[in-house]
Give the backbone structure.
Amino acid sequence: MSNIPSTKPYLVRALYEWCVDAGFTPHVAVVVDDTVRVPRAFVRDGQIVLNIAPDATHQFNLDNEALSCQARFGGVAQMLYVPIANIAAIYARENGQGMAFEVEPKLDGAATAAPVESEPAAVPAPAESADSDDSPTPPEGGRPHLRVIK
């Protein structure tokens, strides 16, 4: 069974294309560990939400192994690298429709403390980022789901 490819990269690509075709802004919620290359200053609670719309990225590549692109953070272009295994969700910013995935914790002592089962939050406005102390607790034994935060 180990030689059967995972469906996750195919689902991520399909939802990305659906978002772009429908005129929505695709976002991915990423569990950050030592295999993910993103600006650490923007990581909150071990996660980061990335806008991966075509007009927000350059050199975008989404294959079976990873998502990679160049994006701007604070006006500075940076190369991003996100293994598919670290993508917790992909969804449309405008309506929250998308799909959440289980992210397995790394056994080698990586930065991820536990599997992600909570909802990925929308990118907070700068004024709201200081108020994000109380994160919602995930339902016990429940499946991950998305929630639109306005």
Remarks:
- Strands lie at 26-31, 47-51, 57-62, 66-73, 76-83, 87-92, 98-100.
